[in-house]
Amino acid sequence: MQLTVDGRKIDAVAGQTVLEAARAAGIYIPALCYHPKTGKAGRCRACVVEIEGMRGLKEACAQEVRDGMVVHTDTDRVQQTRRLVVDLLLAEGHHNCISCQANGTCELQEMAYRIGVERPAFLIETEPAPLDVSSEGIVREADKCIQCGRCVLACQNHVVNEVLAFGYRGSHAAVVCDDDRPMGESSCVLCGECVQVCPVGALVLKQPREAKVRPSETVATKVTCPFCGVGCQIDLHTKDNRYVFAMAHEGQWLKQPNRGSLCVKGRFGLDFIDAPDRLRTPLVRKDGELVEASWDEALDLVAAGLKQAKDKYGPDSVGFFTSAKVTNEENYALGRLARAVIGTNNIDHCARL
Predict the structure, then answer these.
(1) Domain boundary among 236, 258, 278
(2) Calpha distance 53→63 (Å, rounded)
């Protein structure tokens, strides 16, 4: 089917929302409460648009497309509503962009910039909330929370840890851990999904914060997590060729084995990359001492040793032990080496222990 957005015809599929179709076509519509992993929301009204034939403004993140639909995303009425949304969010929070860890990646900041809001039209004086640094890996700053609900939906429905929820009522409403405990004292398992989906600086990782490195200053490289054979895809963030932090890769997240999520190891266990005592080259034994060698030299030595053992004692004199810390494909390749090249079924896996 086709719809027209700001005079441009774009393709869409049944079940898509206006927001999804527009973004797939490269058309910017802000959406603070929507995230692909948390689904339709309709809470913040940042994504409102005008649709011909419909009364009032409609949330693009909740309105499904119809063939022939005509959508306007940049009218005066739409922009005035979005400015009011930004004004209200900036007025009731302590959004100090200069010192914020999310500066440069904050979706509220991006929205304010796009619609031309340099400062809120009014301010609501509130007492600053205490910083929650009780968690081993996450910092919570309630003053920056815009109550979009992304973290709650991700925790409750996507990873199903059921730690985060909305607590209290009215102007006292807030995102809480369990029965309003500090995050470090709650049942949080440190998967970091809440940080992954947070659009502002209310939930940030401790690693880049303590390193004084903003995510916008880093280079993200897509890699495969080394901790098990699932093959989770990670964006490894580095600065000056040094590891800073890791986030789940979200490109085409539905086609990935981890669907844009990570466990505590994948998100917080990669500090070993820059460990000073980490082995960076193969070691071979010469005259009783381990010395550094090239990969070609080390592999040739291993191949010669395996061939010598097979020729002298037979293929069953050789055994292979594979690891859960590599990919399934690598384990399969070692199985083929054992059975098809060496000719032995003596192969086992550390995940069985």
Answers:
(1) 278
(2) 13
Looking at the fold, whether 40 and 65 belong to one and the same domain comes out as: yes
Residues 274 and 289 in one domain: no
Q: Is residue 183 part of a domain?
A: no
Residue 95 within any structural domain of the chain: no
- The model's pTM: 0.84
Closest residue by Cα to residue 191 from 225, 168, 141: 225
Query: Across the chain, how many H-helices and E-strands are there?
Result: 9, 16
* Whether the Cβ atoms of residue 264 and residue 190 lie closer than 8 Å to each other: yes
Cα–Cα distance between 145 and 174 in angstroms, integer?
Answer: 8
Q: CA of 137: how far to CAs of 63, 151, 207, in Å? A: 37, 16, 7
Residue 301's domain comprises 283-352
Place of tokens 């797939």: 24
Report phi then psi at 169, rounded to 5: -140, 165
What's the pLDDT tens digit per position in 26-49? 999 999 999 999 988 888 999 999
Q: What angle do CA 65, 66, 67 make, to 5 degrees?
A: 130
Residue 191, SS3 per DSSP? coil
Backbone angles phi, psi at 280, to 5 degrees: -115, -10
Q: Structural domain tally of the chain? A: 3
Domain edge (last residue) among 74, 98, 122: 74
Most confident by average pLDDT, 37-46, 68-77, 123-132, 320-329: 68-77
Give φ, ψ of 284 to 5 degrees.
-125, 155
Task: Answer yes or no: is 229 within a domain.
Answer: yes
CB-based burial label for 116 (10 Å; 0-12, 13-18, 19+):
exposed
